[in-house]
Structure of ABC3 transporter permease C-terminal domain-containing protein:
Amino acid sequence: MSFRQFVINNVRRNPKVYGPYFFTSFFAVTMFFVYALLVFHPEFKDSIDSSSETMSYFAMIGFQVSQVIIVIFSAFAIFYAVSTFLKTRKAEFGLLLIQGINKKQLVKLIFWENMLAGLSAVVCGVIFGFIFSKVILLICSKILALTETLPFYFPWKPILLTFGVFGLMFLVISFVTSFTIRVNNLKALLASQKEPKKEIKAAWYIALLALVLITTGYGIVLIFTNRESFALTPLFTGVILVVIGTYFFFSQLLVFMLTRLRKRERFFFKRTNLLTFSELIYQMRDNVSTFFIVAIISATAITAMGTSSAIGSSGLAEMSENPYAITYTGYGQDTISKDIISYTEKTLQGDSYKRANGHFYQFSDDTDVFYTFLSIEDYNALMDLRNEAKITTPPGTVVLLPTESLSELHLKSDAPDKIEIQLSNQKTTLPVEKVAPINRFPYASSSSSVEIGTIIANQADIDALWQEAEVRYKNPKDNYNSKIPYTIFHMVDWESTAASAKKLQNNVDSWNEKNQDSDKGIYTGFESLAIQWQTMQQTNGLLLLLTVLCGAVFYTFSAGFIYLRLHSDLKRDEQQYKMLFKIGLTKSELHKIVARQLRVMFFLPLFVAVIHSLVAFLALQNLLDFNIWQNVGIVIGIFIAVQAIYYFFVKYQYLKQLRRIMK
C-alpha cells in the first residue's frame, strides 16, 4: 500500500473523527459561497438600488464583512477542531512510530489528512452551492423582497474566490497543525489516553460575581432600552457584562453549585447521582469553553432571528409614521394637483380603494408656540379608511392626539385640562375633552410641543383661530402659517401596491420637476406604505442573511465541538463504564447516566441562551407598540426542536458505542 493510499484510507475509515470536521467545514464553505453568489451577481446591486441606494451600499458591505467573519471564525474553529482530535490520536501516532514510521513521515501524514478532508469539504460545498444556486437565488430574492427574482448565472467568480480563500486557509491550518503534535516522547504518546483529568476549582466570590454581572447587565439593558431614555453606550455595556458573566457562570458558578451538591450526601449518594455529578464536575474543565461559545452564539442567533421576524411583519409597517397605502401632501397649494389625482385613480383602477381629503393647519401664537390642528371631520374620514372608531367633541373643546410614543406616554399620565392660545391680544381657552388613541397621519411632524401633539377640533373653531393667526402677519413674506392639504388612497391589500407605487412616485417626481417653486414653497410630497414595508423587509432580509446565516455557521461549529468533545472522551468512558459494568452497572442505569450528562451538555447552554434572548426581546418590546412574542415563540421553538433532534441522534450513537462493552 502506497503512502497516498494510506492517507486516503486513514480519512475514509475514520468518519467519527473527520466527519464533524468535514461537515462543519462544508457548511462554512456553502455559506461563504452563498454570500459570494449574491455579491458577484450582475443584477443584485441594481435590484437593491431600485428600492434604496443606501440599502444597496450596506448590503454589499454587509455581505463582504460577513464573508470575512465566516473565514476568520472558520479558521479558528477548524484549527481548534483539528488540534482536539489530533490529541485524541496520540496513542495511534505512538503505534505508528513503533511500526517504523519516522517523524517526518508522521508530520507529512497529518498534513495530507487535513488537506484531504479540508479540500473535500471545499469541493463538496462549492458543488452543493452551485447545484442549488437557482434555489438559493429564489430564496434570497424572497427574503430581500426584491420585485424581480434574481436570474441564474454561472458563478465562476464565487467559485474561484471560495476555492482560493478556503484552499489557502486549509493549507495554512494543515501546515501549522502538522507541526503542533509532539512526537518526541513515545511513552507519553502511548499513555495519553490514561492521563487522569484534574478537577476544576471554583471560588465562591467569582461565582457570586457571575450572578452580579449577569443581573447588572440585564438591568442596564432593560433600563436604557425604552422610548424615553434609549442609549447605545449603556446597551453595549450591559451586553458585555452579560457575556463576561456567562463565562464565569459556566467556569465558576456552575462548578460551585455542583460541588455544593456533592457535599449533600443524601442527594449525592442517591442511586446514580454519584456517577452523574462526579463526571459532570470533571467534564467542566473541558466543556467550559464549549458551553460558553454555544450559549453566546445561540443567544445571538435567536435574538437576530426573532428581531428579523418582528421587523418583517406587515403589522409593524402599519405602525410606521404613515399607516395609509398612498399619501400625497401638498405644500404651497390649496389642494393636490388634479393631474396627480387622476393619474393615481387610473393606476389603481383595478384595486378596491377608499379615498380621503383634508388639511392640517399649523400656526404660531403671540408667544411663538406652534400648534398643529386637524378638524374632527377630517380625522373621522381618516378613521373610516381603516374602519377604526370615530370620535366626537362639543364645539369649543378639543381632543389631543398623540402622534408618537413619547407624547402618548406623557398624555396618558399627565394630560393638560385646557389649551390656551394667545392670538392678537386675545386669549382663546380650549378645554381638553379627552386624549385620542395614538395614531399616525400623513403630516405627523407637529411643531407643537411633544406633550401636546396634534390638536383635533371642530372646523368652525379651527377657522376662527386661523383667521386670528393670519391677522398677525401684514407682510405675506413673513407669514409662517401653513395650511397643508393631503389626499390619501387606502386599501386592505396595500402590500400588493409596490409596483404601482413606484409608477406614482415617478409621476410625482416629474410633476415636481415642472411645478416645484422654492420661493413660493410649492412642492408635492409622496409616501407609499408598500415601499416603506419593502424597505423594512429588505432591512429584515439583510439582518437575516448577515447575522442568522453567520450564526448558523457558528452554531454548526459549536455542535461539532460538542460531538468532538464526546468522541474525544469515548475511549476513556468505555474503560470507565466497562469497569462499572463488571461491578453491577445495568444497561438502564447506563442509559440514565449518559442521558443526564448529554442533556446538560446540549440543553444547559441553550437554556442560558434563551434566557439572554428573552431579556433582549423584553427590551425590544419596550421600543415597539407591536406584539413580537408570537414571532419570538416560533424562533425559540425552532431552536429547541433542532437541538432536541441533534440530542437524540447523538445520544443514540453514543449509547450504541457504549453498549458494545456491556454485551
Observations:
- DSSP finds 23 helices and nine strands in the chain.
- The two ends are 35 Å apart (CA to CA).
